[in-house]
Amino acid sequence: MERLSQSLRDAPIIQKGEYEYFVHPISDGVPMLEPELLREIVIGIIRKADLDGVNKIVTPAAMGIHISTAVSLMTDIPLVVIRKRQYGLEGEVSLAQVTGYSENEMYLNDVEPDDRVLLLDDVLSTGGTLHSITSALEEIGADIADIVAVIKKVGGENKMDDHDVKTLINVDVVSGSVVIVDENGDG
Fold first, then answer.
1. Domains in the chain, please, with CATH?
2. Which residue from 58, 80, 92, 147 has the least number of CB within 10 angstroms?
């Protein structure tokens, strides 16, 4: 994860209220995402995730899409995107997304009871988004095979303490800079 580590060390920091937010190609699409970085991340996810029997990859819009699309292409596992737009389709499930700096309503389609899913996201910070998604998946009756976030921002509240989340790298923001806490992440 050399490219990922260096790209995080180089990431600019902005303030969103009280929240120190790092700007990164994986979490924001800015600066541009180099193919070499995306490839390194996808290989890391495939090596770390439990893919046994997984029949769907589930990811929230928008910043999980590029990562999950690449994993889907490499594994031939179909991709379900949780959208911020309601479609009113049969079986659609509404969930509230609460992050460290925003609140949104999101909508999940195409997940059935007994589906075995891999949940992917770009960043685990407060755990608000992943917590909402895991609750919705459990309500549907899906089996969550594994949860992987590329980057974990440590040091704050984590609503995912009741679920194991694998990460590729763990970071903190200290004095306006990203500091690598664990180059191997969790799990």
1. 2-182 (3.40.50.2020)
2. 92
CA distance 103 to 64: 17
CA distances from 184 to 14, 63, 103 (A): 25, 22, 30
Q: How far is the first Cα of the chain from the last one, in angstroms, to the nearest whole number?
A: 15
Q: Which residue blocks in 49-107 are alpha helix, DSSP H?
A: 65-75
pLDDT digits (tens, 9 = 90+) for 25-84: 999 999 999 999 999 999 999 999 999 999 999 999 989 999 999 999 999 999 999 999
Predicted TM-score of the model (pTM): 0.94
